[in-house]
Automatic annotation (TrEMBL):
<protein>
    <recommendedName>
        <fullName>Uridine kinase</fullName>
        <ecNumber>2.7.1.48</ecNumber>
    </recommendedName>
</protein>
<keyword id="KW-0547">Nucleotide-binding</keyword>
<dbReference type="InterPro" id="IPR029057">
    <property type="entry name" value="PRTase-like"/>
</dbReference>
<comment type="similarity">
    <text>Belongs to the uridine kinase family.</text>
</comment>
<dbReference type="InterPro" id="IPR000836">
    <property type="entry name" value="PRTase_dom"/>
</dbReference>
<dbReference type="Pfam" id="PF14681">
    <property type="entry name" value="UPRTase"/>
</dbReference>
<dbReference type="GO" id="GO:0008655">
    <property type="term" value="P:pyrimidine-containing compound salvage"/>
</dbReference>
<feature type="domain" description="Phosphoribosyltransferase">
    <location>
        <begin position="257"/>
        <end position="466"/>
    </location>
</feature>
<dbReference type="GO" id="GO:0005524">
    <property type="term" value="F:ATP binding"/>
</dbReference>
<dbReference type="Pfam" id="PF00485">
    <property type="entry name" value="PRK"/>
</dbReference>
<keyword id="KW-0808">Transferase</keyword>
<dbReference type="InterPro" id="IPR000764">
    <property type="entry name" value="Uridine_kinase-like"/>
</dbReference>
<keyword id="KW-0418">Kinase</keyword>
<comment type="pathway">
    <text>Pyrimidine metabolism; UMP biosynthesis via salvage pathway; UMP from uridine: step 1/1.</text>
</comment>
<feature type="domain" description="Phosphoribulokinase/uridine kinase">
    <location>
        <begin position="27"/>
        <end position="215"/>
    </location>
</feature>
<dbReference type="InterPro" id="IPR006083">
    <property type="entry name" value="PRK/URK"/>
</dbReference>
<dbReference type="InterPro" id="IPR027417">
    <property type="entry name" value="P-loop_NTPase"/>
</dbReference>
Amino acid sequence: MLSNHIIVGEGRPPWYKSDGQNCDCYVVGIAGASASGKTSVAQRIIKNLNVPWVVLLSMDSFYRDLTEEELEIAHRNDWDFDSPNSYDYDLLLETITKLKEGKKVDVPIYDFETHKRVPNKANTVYGANVIIFEGIFGLYDKKVLEMMDLKVFVDTDADICLARRIKRDVAERGFDVAGVLKLYQRFVKPSFDTYVYPTKKNADVVIPRGLENLVAIDLLTKHIQRQLQERKMQSRWDMAKISPPKELSPNVIVLEKTKQIDGMHTIIRDRSTTRHDFIFYADRLATLVIERALNELPYETHTITTPTAKTVHGLRLNAHVVGVSILRAGGTMEAGLRRVIRDAVIGKILIQTDPSNGEPQLHYCKLPPSIRENSTNDDTYIFLMDAVIGTGAAGLMAIRVLLDHDVPEERIIFLSFLSAPQGLHIISNAFPKVRVVTSYVDPVLNPHTLFLEPGLGNFGDRYFGTEND
């Protein structure tokens, strides 16, 4: 039976600020006896909170792999899984630390039947506003305790815990009743008395009777909500209301206004433009944007010999360019990228907005291996591509994903056809080292003129077509 690791939401929203120390992530630790109802209490808290970006971590995910000798003992039901020595605290601490910093983590999936982590499989999480960590030793390790904002101990009667454990281990983990009782008498109860119960003194809140104590859980939830409110969680629609400064950031580069560019924008904005012409002029415009972005990359002096045996001193690009398109509209710039850089490798990120709350959600991420391999080298630069920068929410999340893959902020160049001042301001404010290259900045954030509406009003639909085409 695989461990019960639960992820609620899609991870941390992209517009948070964190320097690795002063982080706005709120961490709740929940401990208690085995089968005391820790997971149920955590799920109830999450339901009551009713906010996105919540991650529930189970300590069951952090059992360490057993050696062959230890596996033989475990299969005889003689291994103490309720001992602190059965857990990988280093990995647990590393996981919570990265989550608090907003970095991507791969949470192991543990198989209770094989007593090992499932190879080549993990639950990937991209940070969170709230982390709820539950387990029998949730309040045991000193370093983990120091990372918690709120510590909870679920105090349930021992007989109820035993009955629940028998039901769970027989139904979900492949044990028989005799085996469960044997483990309980030899390991579970002694471990609780020796290690788990003493951690009750570390708790800020003790919840008697677990999930049955709805009053205590509701009070706890309200406390967490107040803490989150104080940390000023901000939604995408809040960002859209921000009044940008009159002057753009120095890191925002707008193509020089020419008759050619104005003419192409006139054509692609014209409702009567055919799809064939729309693609043609969009590709031309993308080529100009990408060529301008190449000016932001490093060059080195290079001497060549011409066919007439003359020596010429020139420049050579000293960078490796990787393209990443934000699907679907970002794919409209891929043809332009390949026109300029024939061997460009392109990755894809799919980010869609939750219509219920306006939050961007990451649905798909496939980045070229060269990003991870070359991210620490000085010659790798990422051209992040999207047709339009509106509120900036999708761009912020895409940049956050690249940073989570160890891409330095200063080596990300964001490319777009059209931009709104709000989105440019928000991106520049959140990631001041990221450069943005765009062909045109609309005076205001207007979905009608920024190709943000479905059908004819959407850049990607006009370029790639729709089901009705």
